[in-house]
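Figure 3 (text version): structure tokens given as input.
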């Protein structure tokens, strides 16, 4: 008789709430290929965003220890979301009986012949309460990562941590700490001598600081320092802008040394703003937001010899269209290489979007795309300037170091005089960034009437990127 655990029993095996939530999203036949089951096991291939699918199998034959799991994904959780999702699909009678796939046959036979030993391909067995978990990942989670409420009945010794890797991590942490402390001392010295000091207007002063931060592996802070340097002397009131940026650098320098005292999401945002990167595989292993994403705009900036492209995606968060979710996808081109646009502005894609950790959900990766791009879009409900700027304000409250935020409004371009323009509607106005050089195109498309404009809000004002009028999309 085939074993069929209940959905509640499957979810109780999850190592944490995130894994349980991810399993619910994966318990659908559409994401599985060649899924099958018999009296003692269930198996299948998860159609991942990577080049190759993940081989997943669950052994249900042990009535004493509970299920055992096998998955070729890089997740450290045991069981991972793929094993849980497949088992949850099986519990809902969504997997048909079939002949075992070769990888499942090999794994199950190896378990029968060597039930208590480590397998030849690097699998390891651990006991989590009533669950025996096996995983193919190259690293195992901590003993507490996935322990169930009652605690473990028995535990197999965990493999020793890699001393060389631990040493590299410790050395990087020490370099970053030293760099952050030096940055904070530098900021204090600049405030003590005053912003009118001639040293501040010397580009070499900022270049030395940026180079020191690069050496300390705080690359994101180094780039920010270089951007602050460009503000010195840029206009008569540049001292206000530089002082504000220095205050943010001070907050990041202190916060990065005390992330243990910050809320988890805020600490992740500080890490990202400092320069700690998150592997793409880890991001793609997170729970995605699936929907129809309109490719709203693109912008490019230069940082030294690197071109940074931001692709802004927008989706409705409900069928009534009462809110808009934004996602920013970054691409980079170095040494003069052009950044290719993966998605065409003005089209819509149905895709899984995975979020980078941070104070707000903004930077993201596009995972699995469910179909070809289509020339369709939606119009957001919140198109008033006041509402858009309120949303930007809440985003800055979540990440005070945020430098730009997407805005989609319906407004009329209006001259301010002296070559400056602003956007005006019934709720207020927002100035156009002084660096924007294509105002004539915006005015010609508008012809004096309100148009849809998508762009980036920043301290310098609104930077238009896309104009939509009478179904016509103009990319600026």
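Below: residues designed for each position.
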């Amino acid at each position: 008789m085939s074993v069929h655990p209940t959905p509640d029993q499957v979810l109780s095996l999850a190592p944490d709430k995130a894994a349980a939530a991810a399993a619910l999203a994966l318990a659908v036949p559409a994401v599985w290929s060649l899924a099958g089951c018999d009296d003692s096991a269930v198996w299948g291939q998860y159609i991942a965003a990577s080049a190759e699918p993940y081989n997943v199998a669950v052994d249900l034959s042990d009535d004493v220890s509970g299920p055992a799991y096998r998955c070729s994904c890089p997740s450290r959780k045991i069981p991972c979301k793929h094993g849980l999702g497949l088992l949850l699909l099986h519990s809902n009678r969504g997997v048909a009986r079939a002949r075992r796939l070769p990888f499942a046959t090999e794994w199950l036979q190896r378990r029968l012949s060597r039930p208590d030993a480590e397998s030849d391909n690097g699998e390891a067995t651990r006991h989590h309460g009533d669950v025996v978990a096996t995983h193919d990942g190259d690293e195992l989670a901590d003993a507490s990562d996935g322990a169930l409420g009652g605690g473990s009945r028995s535990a197999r010794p965990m493999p020793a941590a890699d001393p060389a890797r631990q040493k590299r991590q410790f050395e990087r942490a020490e370099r970053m700490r030293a760099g952050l402390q030096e940055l904070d001392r530098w900021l204090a010295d600049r405030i003590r001598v005053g912003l009118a000091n001639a040293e501040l207007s010397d580009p070499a002063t900022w270049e030395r600081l940026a180079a020191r931060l690069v050496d300390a592996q705080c690359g994101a802070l180094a780039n920010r320092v270089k951007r602050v340097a460009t503000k010195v002397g840029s206009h008569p009131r540049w001292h206000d802008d530089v002082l504000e940026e220095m205050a943010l650098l001070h907050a990041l320098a202190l916060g990065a040394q005390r992330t243990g005292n910050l809320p988890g999401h805020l600490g992740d945002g500080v890490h990202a703003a400092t320069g700690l990167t998150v592997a793409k595989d880890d991001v793609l292993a997170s729970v995605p937001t699936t929907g129809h994403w309109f490719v709203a705009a693109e912008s490019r900036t230069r940082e030294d010899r690197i071109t940074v492209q931001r692709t802004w995606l927008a989706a409705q968060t409900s069928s009534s269209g009462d809110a808009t979710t934004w996602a920013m996808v970054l691409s980079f081109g170095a040494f003069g290489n052009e950044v290719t646009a993966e998605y065409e502005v003005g089209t819509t894609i149905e895709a899984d979007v995975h979020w980078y950790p941070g104070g707000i959900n903004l930077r993201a990766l596009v995972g699995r795309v469910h179909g070809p791009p289509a020339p369709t879009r939606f119009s957001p409900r919140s198109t008033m300037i006041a509402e858009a700027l309120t949303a930007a304000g809440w985003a800055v409250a979540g990440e005070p170091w945020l430098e730009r935020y997407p805005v989609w409004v319906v407004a009329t371009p209006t001259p301010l005089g002296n070559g400056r323009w602003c956007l005006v509607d019934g709720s207020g106005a927002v100035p156009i960034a002084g660096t924007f050089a294509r105002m004539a195109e915006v005015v010609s498309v508008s012809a004096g009437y309100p148009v849809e404009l998508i762009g980036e809000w920043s301290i310098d004002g609104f930077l238009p990127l896309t104009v939509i009028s009478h179904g016509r999309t103009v990319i600026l």
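The longest helix spans residues 163-193.
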